[in-house]
Amino acid sequence: MMPNPANNIDVKRRNRANTLRSILSCDRISQTELTQRLTLSWPTVLQNVKELTALGLVQEVGEYDSTGGRKAKAYAPVRNAKLAVGLDVTQNHVGMVLVDLSGQIVRYTRKKSPFSLNDRYFQELGSVLRDFIGDRDTGSRIQGVGVSLPGIVDKAGEELLYSHALGIQNVSTAAFSKYISYPCTYINDANAAGLAEIRGKGFTENLVYLSLSNSVGGAILNAGELYTGSNLRAGEFGHNTLIPGGRRCYCGKEGCLDAYCSAKVLSNHTNGNLLEFFDQLRAGNPEMQKIWQEYLRYLAVAINNLRMSFDCDVMAGGYVGAFLEEFGAPLRGMLEGRNTFQQDASYFKICRYQVEAAAVGAALLQIEEFIQSL
């Protein structure tokens, strides 16, 4: 049977993209190591490297010391050759990140901007984005903008079906990009954050991401791919019932996880300022310590339930997740005590991105689309 030319093109494109990913994952790499990682012949890898170099995405950076034969050439990524912007829309703020080809944050900012479904708001969105991008050189390297939205986005990314946080439903996502001059993609905020966390750790991993922000959400990643469910609601962990007949959730039901583990549960004790809560906790305020211990007990139940349900690593992120490295030590002991099968909490992970994870994940959609197009 004759080979299908279309399939050959797809294979070449995939190999080229994987070559770039491998080079992006390190500061520099030898031709031998690159060949071993990719399990491809050196002529194939060399051709890919030449093409990526011609595109300005890879550069030769000298040679490695000889081990007896010819010196191996060293290659390095040109990470800032292409960039993408992530835009995180929330009820009261807009977060923005600029990321390079490897997903590293070049810069970020967060501005107060209460959401309103009108043209003035969308004009402001375009304006703050232009100010954030700044100079023309940066703008010329931007591949697109990923927009993170707090709600259910349809599979095509064309409609925000429902957002309690923004108080809207069935709104065209094109409204958000009306005054943005770059290609835009759209994604749920917790899904975006989950994608940001798993990138660079291996796309074959399974992970449940629990977002602990002003509302509780999450993402389910199966072999590195998002599982969104039959109705695009997979990962809505905030509405799992934690305490039947318990505290009233914003959704109107009683006992939802959101009512016990959202960031507001903590910040409501410090006039809406989460940083102030942890400042007081750091200073040894006994009242805040009591509130924190109660919060962790509920969180331990939620995390254990996710572990028992999905049997994979569980990661906590979001606003509260950013503080768990410093204040989360008691949580591991609680998790060990709840683990049915082994006294171990090594499955529990703390987020890598302590700022703007959702914006980063949204931006990475544009980066990944670019890499796959090579």
UniProtKB/TrEMBL annotation:
Short name of any one Pfam family annotated for the protein: HTH_24
Cross-referenced SUPFAM superfamilies: Actin-like ATPase domain, Winged helix' DNA-binding domain
Key words, A-Z: Carbohydrate metabolism, Xylose metabolism
BP terms from Gene Ontology: D-xylose metabolic process
UniProt family annotation: Belongs to the ROK (NagC/XylR) family.
Role, per record: Transcriptional repressor of xylose-utilizing enzymes.
Protein name, as recorded: ROK family transcriptional regulator
